[in-house]
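so my prof wants the structure for this chain in the tokens format not the other one, which i didnt know existed until like an hour ago. anyway here's the sequence
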Amino acid sequence: MGQGRGARLSILVTAVVLLCSACASMEVRREEADAHYQMANSYLQQGRGFQDETNRRMAYPELMEAIRLDPNNASYYLVLGTLYLYSREFLKAESEIRKALDIDPNLGDARNNLGLVFIEQGRLNEAIVEFKKAVDNLSYQTAEVAYFNLGRASFLVGNYTEAAEALNRSLAILPANVEARFFLGRSYVKLGRLRDAEKAFLAALEMDPDTPRTHYELGVVLFKLDRKEEASQHFQQVVKLDPDSEIADQARTYIKLLR
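here's what i got, hopefully its the right format
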């Protein structure tokens, strides 16, 4: 009886030792995976970040090694999917981001970036669904980004009321987003709220005064408000800033009408 109890104890001790060894081995793999992931991120944070092809090429093998060592980390798949997004390999981007969401369905950045993939593919309604999931996630730390993208996608499908609401929510968190103010102005134009559109475009120009399209849109608003002299000034600015563009030709047409 004693010998049997001793044998069982020996087997149990061996099992515990093996389990501890396996846990230690897994921890080492995770640490190695994280080191490769951090290296990938260091490449992707240089210069123009994800937009730089060289950065993406340098980061790619590091990400793949991180995933090989730790295939259950949602962040690794998210960054790889984002890398594919900027490389305009949208099918691969969607696949990797979905892997991230399979591991962590509450990963807000993954919802946002999947929405960006859908926008690039013209799948606007699907994009809106993902952006809404992102902003509905109370733990999502950069909701202003998803609100902006929701506003942009809503504008593109013609839902200007929802676009204006989402853009205002984004600007309440990040008021310095020039692009959000531009789309807000365009949304107000579509809703017939010309004075609100004027305010939005003026705010955008305060932050970035040399943007021809904002001067053009503001010129059109002022033209509709019958403030011809002010409209002409903005149309002239379009021609000055970007004389060979299509909107410069359109601005010249307005200038002729205003003489």
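also thought this was worth mentioning. The chain is about 80% helix and 0% strand.
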